Amino acid sequence: MEIKERFAERARDKSPSPIRELLKYMTIEGMISLGGGYPNPDTFAFESIDIIFRSGQSVHIEGKNLTTASQYGPSDAHAGLKSELRSWQQHKDAVSLNDDQLVVLNGSHEGLFIMSYLFLNSDDSVIVSEPTYPGALAAFKSFTQNFIQVPLDSDGMDTAALVEILAKIEMQGGPLPKFIYVIPNGHNPGGVALSDGRRKHLLRIASDYDLLVLEDDPYQLIKLDDSPLQPTLQSLDKEGRVIRLDSFSKIFAPGLRIGFASGHPEIIRQFVLFKQSSNLHTSTFIQEILMQYLSSVGHESFRDHIKKNCLLYRTNRDAMVAAVKEHLPAGISYNIPTEGMFMWFEMPEKHNAVRMMENYCEELKVILVPGGAFSSSGGCGNCMRASFSLVSPEQIGEGIRRFGEMIRKDG
Amino acid sequence: MEIKERFAERARDKSPSPIRELLKYMTIEGMISLGGGYPNPDTFAFESIDIIFRSGQSVHIEGKNLTTASQYGPSDAHAGLKSELRSWQQHKDAVSLNDDQLVVLNGSHEGLFIMSYLFLNSDDSVIVSEPTYPGALAAFKSFTQNFIQVPLDSDGMDTAALVEILAKIEMQGGPLPKFIYVIPNGHNPGGVALSDGRRKHLLRIASDYDLLVLEDDPYQLIKLDDSPLQPTLQSLDKEGRVIRLDSFSKIFAPGLRIGFASGHPEIIRQFVLFKQSSNLHTSTFIQEILMQYLSSVGHESFRDHIKKNCLLYRTNRDAMVAAVKEHLPAGISYNIPTEGMFMWFEMPEKHNAVRMMENYCEELKVILVPGGAFSSSGGCGNCMRASFSLVSPEQIGEGIRRFGEMIRKDG
Fold it and tell me: How does pLDDT run across B346-373, given as a tens digit for each residue?
């Protein structure tokens, strides 16, 4: 697979910092370097850091580790964290990544922007599901306004429809899209997962049409039942087409802003050059904390802790499903999510979600997000997203009851 | 001053997330929100954090503050930190910023990239000093390869030369550059400060030619003598032309990746929209830590602490200057820096710095950075940068002695 010619022009000329050329001399015995421009660690603010985690572990950072956490670091990753993340990916996805296949990001969201920077000229297009995650649309819209929509159903992105769309573009001689954007698990806002058959079909399509795939998977481990994880697109990919984004926002803490991208070394190399020129690197302080946590807690125990946290979401999901069955009128389509934090309601065409919120939100005192926010084309006007992440089961029950009333009032 | 028409096309269509429209309903009593997609704080990793600072302060973060630090936050800034930073800017620069004039970044370096994203089409140009900071060149090169060089001398960017260059461009009917990039204090690599007269002249020029100014000032507080701070360009600016970048990398710790941009509300608004679409926001965890530190240490005591740290750099600078006077042959130009971490040596034209390092680095065991790394046009081939930040006074003395030997060997 040829990668280079896919990059947008702006991303083609990037080369590593010339100062890095000098690093080869650094290890020579007796060398005095007046080269490095880093500030002196003796001036850094921290003496020591103690963190107690809810899972019971605690971490004490001082001395050499604290200096590493406080100093500038490599643009790809803190070495210790990279090693932990490679092993984490092996553990959860059975995927072996080399050192040049992983880059730590300011949250996986940064990966959406970097893909956009690297690949999207203003006349390029991206394949997205309808509906899709608005944060991804915002990132892609930083460089293009062209989207190709593929319908989403209870099995995720409709790959049969995708084939038809691509065949038509090809027949018309139009340029093919740069990549397929997929949220394989706990789709935000759709609340659906891509079925096993469609995962394989999607990769076959990508191969047939020579497309890249951007796998955005923040809800992978927010499981709401006991089924095993489905294979990731990355794990099924034999051709290096999948760039995968992993997040710690839902399984550790979102405020840290840490996630990582992994995939084809040539693409990851461009991610690293982008980091170097745009923000140098992700906070080494945050990377050290995550590294210390992962190495002290261990994979199995981390997974157990995540599972325990998922009970909260599972209880809330159950409360929402029960309330939906009890309170919503007939004719509302929805899916029962097996991962994530969202349910998506499609109402009959006559309903306008934005107007409903404007007319009844204050009176009925319930907020859902009108579907238009999740459309790349001003569609989904008759849809609503409900989140069950931040509310109690009681609030969920009452909230959905009010939503039912809102639908009835709207006629 | 008209701002909107200056933006690159890609930055013109950005609008805030449509979901934010719903925030107005959130404060209504009894409202149940199924809108927010944030993860539940009960699942977050942290129980408590204790930090001891070298300056003596200590900080304990738990409960509500820890939840804030762990959760997603606003794209512009953690509210408490923004307030601290406004007050910090007032304290050190006598500049009053409104809430809509400041945005916290993943290090001030991110501001270089954002300015580039917002303003630089591929046919636009930027004014830079020759030499200049290569990290800025890398950020600007993300979108354009066109630079207009202005010579640097012991008083900083040569504003008389700048006027000539701009007059010539105007006379030829060529498009004016988008902004002037300036490092006013402790210039990296030049080791010079912009003189008071030139600061005013630069702003007059910006006004005459209707240009924006990007003031990148990470070394402002790394003072190597007892002179008072010079007024920042921002403090002298009456027309809202200056976008200022402040860094905590040299006065707190670089590994955290935190800095901020401040300036014209219309530009800062675009910075915030960029943050929203590219990485959501700077780590709230890091923002909370900096906020807790600033509020517990107080401005005066923070300044004293920085001054104490500067003694290290001052001692090292003195050692380097003494060694330069003792060991370098005649005919080498240099400036004695009053801020920062760098000295810049211009050797006679016959010397080629890259070749010198290749020929003599291993033998003489000293590394300096060849000047070409700091040129936007392949210039500065006869220059070298020496940093005095990471080495002892003894190493500096010996390193410069070896550099002198290298120059002599090179004939």
Answer: 999 999 999 999 999 999 999 999 999 9
B64 in A contact zone (CB under 8 Å): no
Contact by Cβ (8 Å): A337, A183 = no
Is B113 within 8 Å of chain A by CB?
yes
B200-229 mean pLDDT: 97
Residues B277, B161: Cα–Cα separation, whole Å: 39
DSSP, collapsed to helix, strand or coil, labels residue B243 as strand
Query: Per DSSP, which regions of A191-311 are E strands?
Result: 212-216, 242-247, 259-262
Give the residue from chain A lying closest to B12, CA to CA.
A142
Q: How many CB atoms lie within 10 A of CB A362?
A: 12
List B156's β-bridge partners, or say none.
B153
Kindly tell me the sign of the dihedral angle through the C-alpha atoms of A122, A128, A131, A135: negative
Helix (H, G, I), strand (E, B) or coil at B248: coil
Instruction: Find where tokens 């190399």 sit.
Output: A269
Considering CB atoms only, which of A68, A274, A369 is closest to B22? A369
Q: Which residue has the tokens 């959406």?
A: A112
Burial of A406: CB neighbours in 10 Å, binned 0-12, 13-18, 19+? buried
**Contact A400/B34, CB-based, under 8 Å?**
yes
Q: What element of type H or E holds B387?
A: strand B383-387
Tens of pLDDT, residues B4-46 = 889 998 887 677 766 777 878 888 999 999 998 899 999 999 9
Question: Which of A28, A32, A37 faces B342 most closely, judged by CB atoms?
Answer: A37
Alpha carbon A130 to its chain centroid, in Å, reads 17
From CA B106, how far away is CA A75, in angstroms rounded?
A: 13
Q: Kindly report, residue by residue over B81-139, the tens digit of the pLDDT.
A: 999 999 999 999 999 999 999 999 999 999 999 999 999 999 999 999 999 999 999 99
Going by the DSSP 8-state scheme, the letter that residue A339 receives in this structure is: B
Q: Which two tokens stand for residue A308?
A: 């325990």
* A19/B145 CB distance under 8 A: no
Distances (CA, A) of A61 to A289, B52, B162, B214, B293: 8, 11, 49, 37, 18
Please give the ipTM for the structure prediction.
Answer: 0.96
Task: Pick left, alpha or beta for residue A355 (phi over 0 → left; psi -120 to 50 → alpha; otherwise beta).
Answer: alpha
Once rounded to an integer, what is the mean pLDDT over residues B171-195? 97
pLDDT at res. B36: 86
Query: How confident is the model over A103-146, as pLDDT tens digits?
Result: 999 999 999 999 999 999 999 999 999 999 999 999 999 999 99
